Every structure is written in C-alpha cells, then in structure tokens.
Amino acid sequence: MILPEKNFFLFGMGDRDKYIYKNFSLTRYSDGKILYAWNNCTEEFLYSDYTVVLTKNNGGRVVLYENEEGFFIDDKCICASKIYLPDFKEYKYKDQLRILLHEVLINIFDGKPVPNYFVYKKPWYRDSAMMGMVLKATNNLHLIKDWILSITDLYDKNNAGNCEPDNLGQLLYLISLVDDKNNPMVEKIYNEAKRISKNGLLTGLTDFNDHRIYSTLWLKFALKELNIEEDFLNIPEEFDNYARMFWMDRDGIERETKYENEYNWLYPYLWWAVKHFEKEPIDKEYLEIRYPMSWEKEASQANYEEIRQLSNIYADNKFSAPHTWHAAEMFLYLIEMEK
Questions:
Q1: pTM: predicted TM-score of the whole model, two decimal places
Q2: pLDDT tens-digit series, residues 256-281
Q3: Residue 30: inside a domain, yes or no?
C-alpha cells in the first residue's frame, strides 16, 4: 500500500488553530478560507522540523514552521501557545519520533484528543488513553487535562452506541494521568466494573467482539496506576486476540499469541501493538520517514466525507491520516528501542 497525497503538511499542534498547507497555499481549517497563496516557487518539506520551505524563482524564500511557542510564517506569528517538542536526539529513530509526536499533537482539537480531527469529532477513550501515554512522555498532558477532568460518561459509546468494557480501564487510566483516586469518577468506574464483571472478567463487546481479557487488563493496569486494590478480577489462561495488544503490563502472565505476521493495512495500530508486546524487530519499510506516518482505512464509524477538504483521494478511498492510535503505538514502541 502506498500512502497517497503526500504534498501537504498540517500546522496547529496542541490547542492551536488548525491550518492546512497544500499546493502552495495555506488554508484555515475552521472556515476553509485560503489565507495565503504563493506562485512561481518550489517547495521543500522538512517533516521532522515541522517546516515547509518555499523558494521563489527570484531566489527569495518563505518559511512556514511550527515550534514550541507557535506557528509562524517567516517572522510573523500566526497562532501561539506553549507545547513541548523534544528533539529526541539521543534516540535511534529521532526523526520518526518527532513526526509521530506531531501526528498526536495535531489531533488535539478544541482541547480534546481525537483519532483524526477531520473524520472524528468526538474523543474515543481507547485512542485517547494511548495518546495520553505519548503526552505524558513528552510533558504535554496540560493539553488534555481539562477535558479529562470534565468527563462524566463512563463509556464513549462511539462504536454504534455500545458500552465497551475496555473504556472503564482507559478512562481510569486517563484520570490517573492528571488526578488521583479521589476523583469522583473513580468510584463510579469501580462500581460499574464490579457490576459488569463475571468470573473475574469484564463482560460486553469491544470493537463488536468479545475481548474480556483485553478489557480486564486495561482495568487492572489503571487500578494499579492509581494504587487501588481490587479483589474481583482474575485473568485466566485463555486466548483473546486483543490481549496480545496489551503490552503495557503483562501482569506476570505469558499469553499465547497466535497471529499471522502480516501487516494490517486497514488498522495498522493493531499490528504495531502486537509487535510491541512481542518485542519483535520492525522491518525498515515500516520505519521510512514520510508524512503522514500514521493512518486508518475503512473504519466503520468514521465520516470520510469530512476529509475531502484535505484530500479527495482520502475521501474516495475511505482513508484518514494522520491517525493518533497508530501514531501513538509507533511512538511508544520506537521510544523503547535502542538509543
């Protein structure tokens, strides 16, 4: 699979306004207005520097760039707010980490972490928890703290309205990032988990399937993060193909991991999570420096018409990029690799 439409770059990481650079013009996402257009020039994308350089035929240059202070065109600040952008210079995959961090931060929209701000308008607890791990590692949790503390729903109900049991652990983990066990939602989550548990496992459908072990692993992990003891959960030695994706805490259990070693081109975050669990090496072709590095295709709940503003090819092929669960899984594995 070849990622289409590589001639764009998104500006507006974190809580900044969103802008699209494409075809020698800069468009404001919120109203679709073209703010700047340049003629008679060439373009160069410096992805890991969050920069696009336009060189005019007369030798002059225009530089669009984003840093920890804001988004700029030459010396003019377009929008400003504080974010943290480590250089990762001590890491083997420093450029990839810089790009992947961008792909997480660019999808914080209106103070909320979303999978892709074009095709998803609501946060998903599953994707948000993975994003939270990246934000914690880079000192950027302030960007979603208010959203986490405002949550009152136990489930995001984004998958056709289902109350997915893994949401309980993911929400509890998000709370652990910015608060403690005295948060009023903690008791509600704990009580709901006891209510839906049977034989030590949470019951219900996750991604339209029975992934009781995966869901329970999330809850046990989050309870541990908040130093909360429990006596009603138990992980049996049985197979759950989502359990192989839970690399965050093996809990002393080695689980069978039957899976085909084939890249998942529709939902690549699933493949990356399994690779992380198994600590397996990644082939070079999946580490190529490009932009975007993350995506999702043909997801049942995504509104792909909304990405037409960025790309007709994306919309026609039910493709969204960048995608935060994918970017987070890549980032969190690469940052563990040899420096």
A1: 0.96
A2: 555 555 788 999 999 999 999 989 89
A3: no
